[in-house]
Amino acid sequence: MINGPLLDYLSFLTSIHHEVVPTGSTSSRVIVHVDLDCFYAQVEMISNPELKGKPLGVQQKYLVVTCNYEARELGVKKLMNVRDAKEKCPQLVLVNGEDLTRYREMSYKVTELLEEFSPVVERLGFDENFVDVTDIVEKRLQQLPSDVHSAVTVCGHVYNDQAINLHDILHIRLLVGSQIAAEIREAMCHQLGLTGCAGVASNKLLAKLVSGIFKPNQQTVLLPESCQDLIRSLNHIKEMPGIGYKTAKRLEALGISSIHDLQAFSSTLLIKELGVSVAQRIQKLSFGEDNSPVTPSGPPQSFSEEDSFKKCSSEVEAKKRIAELLGSLLNRVCQDGRKPHTIRLIIRRFSSEKHHSRESRQCPIPSHIIQKLGKGNYDVRTPMVDILMKLFRNMVHVKMPFHLTLLSVCFCNLKALNTAKKGPIDYYLGPSLSTTTHSGKRSFKIKDTHMEDF
DNA sequence: TGGGGTTAT
DNA sequence: ATAACCC
């Protein structure tokens, strides 16, 4: 007889075997990219339905960071100066969006809804998600006899209006992906009241690029034969996700400005200029190739709050601002149910120079403070502000004149609660070891047993 | 350019 | 601790 543990061991060996030996048959994936329409503006219109139908902008400091489609039709653009926006569109209604709380909460509701379709959901910012629906597609196809594949239909647009070949299994899989994308968008609309776009393709890069083809509240599927057309439709390398400001500048210095330039450029020269990692990755991107997995985001790795301003030049003022940032963070962190083990202070100094480089100092949070973190009775704020001010004076020579334009506080190195009293494992390992066994990205949220203190 | 996030070095 | 990337 093969008993439990031995069986486990055999399936462990089998799973290794499966990882090491590629099956070759079906490594093709179906990825959905979900991109909410003007997310902050949508959240504001849900909060206050009187805003619906009016041109609406969401303001942070002197910028309109996003706006609804009514405002866009009147010439308002994302990240437009408030003065320019008002000039273009005097009827523009502005709401302040500096407090991200409601946006963050809605953002996670979206991710959680997507996780009901497949647990493999990767967040990108607050308003985009990738979902790997390969397994769902496979399950649905196994329900169907293959002679009935011809009954599968597409949902939404097909990129390039490319003809569908119902005898091509890759087409069929992507069409089923488009049906799942439609179900996802329908669920977002009915359960959360949100609209958005979706793109369906065989990898993250292509799904993301194709999701933006038909813009508000529509979806598009990319069939493999149109892949080259999609990437050639980009007018400049900077439009390629993964090629940012710095890399684009360095590529331009090499005479590379179009996607085709990058495709044709010598690989060895590119490696010499950018290093093997970046060079190989972006050159593959230029062909539409992207083997990066959809990595489940899980709970956040860090919590931060920041504030920017024209000028902060005294230690007293800095301390006030830091204490306020910390206050908000403490609320967030105790709601999360995990505990941060590291705290970081970030500053931006005023400089006439081109780019806003930031400086930071971090340190471990003393364990006696961590333990008191979930409990309202203890003042954790005063010692934490003291720590932050030490970090501050380590960066800023307060005896000398200084001029800051941003302060930010970040909690990171989050670990699950220490629930030592329960499990038999914990009993043997003791409390300090047991917390590290529970650490890691995919740890489950554990209810804070001290919440009634609040 | 705001107020966030992530991973790699 | 910084630098790059994403929104």
TrEMBL record:
Reaction equation(s) it catalyzes: DNA(n) + a 2'-deoxyribonucleoside 5'-triphosphate = DNA(n+1) + diphosphate
Limits of the UmuC domain: 31-244
EC number(s) reported in the record: 2.7.7.7
Record field: compositional bias (Polar residues): 292-303
Region ranges (Disordered): 288-307
Cofactor: Mn(2+); Mg(2+)
Gene Ontology terms, MF aspect: damaged DNA binding; DNA-directed DNA polymerase activity; metal ion binding
Catalytic class of the enzyme: transferase
Localisation: Nucleus
Keyword annotations from UniProtKB, A to Z: DNA damage, DNA repair, DNA replication, DNA synthesis, DNA-binding, DNA-directed DNA polymerase, Magnesium, Manganese, Metal-binding, Mutator protein, Nucleotidyltransferase, Nucleus, Schiff base, Transferase, Ubl conjugation
Listed GO biological process terms: DNA repair; DNA replication; translesion synthesis
A GO-annotated cellular component: nucleus
Domain of life: Eukaryota
Coiled-coil positions: none
Family membership noted in the UniProt record: Belongs to the DNA polymerase type-Y family.
Function, as annotated: Error-prone DNA polymerase specifically involved in DNA repair. Plays an important role in translesion synthesis, where the normal high-fidelity DNA polymerases cannot proceed and DNA synthesis stalls. Favors Hoogsteen base-pairing in the active site. Inserts the correct base with high-fidelity opposite an adenosine template. Exhibits low fidelity and efficiency opposite a thymidine template, where it will preferentially insert guanosine. May play a role in hypermutation of immunoglobulin genes. Forms a Schiff base with 5'-deoxyribose phosphate at abasic sites, but may not have lyase activity.
Subunit structure and binding partners: Interacts with POLH. Interacts with REV1. Interacts with ubiquitin.
Protein name per the record: DNA polymerase iota
Organism of provenance: Chrysochloris asiatica (Cape golden mole)
Encoding gene, per UniProt annotation: POLI
Full-protein positions shown: 1 to 454 of 706
